[in-house]
Write a structure and sequence with these properties.
The complex is a heterodimer of chains A (286) and B (290). Chain A is mostly helical. Chain A has 13 helices and no strands. Chain B has a single domain (60-285), classed as MetI-like (MetI-like fold), CATH 1.10.3720. Classes of the chains: A mainly alpha (286), B mainly alpha (290). At the A-B interface, helix 1, helix 4, helix 5, helix 6 and helix 7 of A face helix 1, helix 3, helix 4, helix 5 and helix 7 of B.
Chain lengths: 286, 290
């Protein structure tokens, strides 16, 4: 909306003013991150004396905090755990949800109608309304908590409804059935048709769902905290939690640890910024 | 597709996803309803059927109602502030400003990071940085950590949630503003509509679909707040900032009253479902086409 015709000066002033307001708000938004970065390099006494002082004004600037946080958090192991869980669950849910949605769209029978209605309805159930019986069933009865596979399975199940819903909408609107009919005439089985013809066409919605699901899995705390207790299996948010519990007074180490958690996501964000933002918008405006 | 191979298709395509979904969502949900009718403590092998005693118990659990009331208060503050702020920032961002993408991406950053880490970052800010400001400037607002005073700890929780959620809503509002029809705006200007008048009579009605989405998202997220609550205040001081979701968790896994906890979880679920449903119904009615 460019309007420079009438009252150009006034407009200009308003624009400058809004830019200034924006910058101030933006700095306020970034302030906590800035504090973490600055203080992660300081020693405890400097932090308590003055959390503001810039790096070059203090002595004893060091990376000790990072080394300590890295080893104490067992960072590599937690990172590996998070990565395994996130990648496996994302792959599984993408694949299964796409297939299920495809089935529902192409088979207009009562089974698929009930399945779809059930999934849409279930989307309003918050996790907290299920977590107690979930622990009860998988812990008490089946006794399979504390396995990575269990967590992957649960992540897959919990994001299934939303993913199927999104895939359903996309297939319904964007995949012409004529393509599939052509494939059948050429002798493809249903399985081949789906993976060779339909699945590649789903690319836009797949990238949206991968981003949304992967972000949710990577950052989730409540579900993993209920499933995993074994120290070896902890994901990054869980190990941050237990690390904080042990070192909460050791500010420098804590800040370094928090920064370590944030950096991998930020790197990914810088690289995939456009896709992530588009994915989130597409996911919300379904 | 031919109906002959329907069964086989179902097994290949639908069954894997359906199995995960039913095993993780549907069965626990149904079982959870049954659980509210028992007095199970999570350990013993016997579950006694107690009928509706747990729901009577919920009525007597004043802590739960306190936390629910607090959650309501929290939701109102968060939903209003987040949406007003995000709407305003998105408006400023879409006025043909330079660096729009940079700002948008920056504001979204907190959403990439889990609530636990965010809570800890802010805990440091509140307990050390702000206190330090208070000490060096004598500003009484910051002299004592916000997290040690019930009212200020609540305000801190609202502040952090607003900071966390608004970036997401900015994205949606920006998308909404970008989708506004230029012709309509121009027509309004030609008709002599002032800035405020345009905002109220044209922009706002056309933005209602974005508002519906944002209100829904903020409502459901704010009601279920847990991560930030746990890492920022953990209910301290003295359980005065314990939100409903956290209370449910404590009831079940700390005091081991599974049936009671699940009854409270279900009540919370019904409340959230009703309020979100009502909100979507009300704001959808106000949506218009350009």
């Amino acid at each position: 909306m460019k309007q420079t015709s009438v009252g150009g000066n006034k407009k200009k002033l308003a624009n400058i003013l809004s830019m200034v307001v924006l910058i101030i708000i933006f700095i306020a938004y970034m302030f906590p991150f800035l504090m973490v970065v600055i203080n992660s390099l300081k020693q405890k006494r400097d932090i308590i004396k003055s959390p503001f002082s810039w790096l070059f004004t203090i002595k004893g600037l060091s990376f000790d905090n990072f080394v300590k946080a890295f080893t104490q958090m067992d960072f590599l192991n937690a990172f590996k755990n998070s990565l395994i869980v996130t990648v496996s669950a994302t792959v599984l849910v993408t694949l299964f949800a796409a297939m299920l949605a495809y089935y529902v769209v192409r088979h207009k029978n009562w089974v698929s109608k009930i399945v779809f209605a059930l999934m849409v309805a279930s989307m309003i159930i918050p996790f907290q309304a299920i977590m107690i019986p979930l622990v009860n069933i998988y812990g008490g009865m089946l006794n399979i908590l504390n396995h990575r596979l269990t967590l992957i399975f649960m992540h897959t199940g919990f994001s299934m409804a939303m993913s199927v819903f999104m895939f359903h909408g996309f297939i319904n609107g964007n995949i012409p059935i004529a393509l599939e009919e052509a494939a059948y005439i050429d002798g493809c089985t249903h399985f081949q048709t789906f993976f060779k013809i339909v699945f590649p066409l789903l690319k836009p919605i797949i990238s949206t769902m991968v981003i949304l699901n992967a972000m949710a899995f990577w950052n989730d705390f409540l579900l993993p905290s209920l499933v995993l207790t074994d120290k070896e299996l902890l994901t990054l948010p869980l190990s941050t939690y237990s690390f904080y519990g042990t070192y909460s007074a050791d500010y420098g180490t804590i800040m370094a640890g928090l920064l370590l958690c944030v950096v991998p996501i930020l790197i990914l964000y810088v690289v995939l910024q456009k896709q992530i933002i588009n994915g989130v918008v597409a996911g919300a405006v379904k | 597709m031919k109906s002959k191979s329907n069964g086989k298709d179902f097994c290949i395509f639908a069954l894997p996803g359906l199995f995960c979904f039913v095993a993780v969502v549907i069965i626990p949900f149904v079982y959870g309803v049954y659980l509210t009718l028992t007095d199970w403590d999570g350990v013993s092998s016997v579950k006694n059927f107690v009928g509706l005693a747990n729901f009577v118990g919920v009525g007597k659990d004043s802590q739960f109602w306190m936390s629910l009331l607090l959650t309501f208060k929290y939701v109102v503050f968060v939903v209003v502030i987040v949406n007003v702020l995000a709407f305003a920032i998105a408006y400023l961002l879409t006025r043909g400003m330079k660096g729009q993408n940079f700002f948008r991406a920056g504001f979204f950053t907190p959403n990439l990071i889990g609530g636990i880490v965010l809570g800890y970052i802010w805990q440091f800010v509140f307990s050390r940085v702000f206190v330090n400001i208070g000490e060096s400037t004598g500003w009484s607002l910051f002299e004592v950590s916000w997290l040690s005073d019930p009212t200020k700890a609540f305000a801190a929780l609202v502040l952090v949630s607003v900071w966390q959620l608004s970036g997401y809503m900015i994205l949606i509002y920006v998308a909404g503003f970008m989708g506004l029809n230029e012709d309509v705006m121009e027509a309004a200007s030609i008709d002599g509509a002032s800035g405020w008048r345009k905002m109220r009579s044209i922009v706002l009605p056309l933005m209602m679909s974005s508002v519906t989405i944002c209100l829904f998202l903020t409502l459901s997220r704010a009601f279920m707040v847990y991560d930030v609550n746990l890492s920022l205040t953990a209910g301290a001081p003295y359980g005065t900032t314990e939100m409903a979701a956290m209370h449910v968790y404590e009831k079940a896994f700390t005091s081991r009253q599974f049936g009671l906890g699940q009854a409270e979880a279900l009540i919370l679920f019904v409340i959230v479902a009703c309020i979100s449903g009502l909100q979507v119904y009300l704001t959808k009615k106000k949506e218009v086409q350009a």
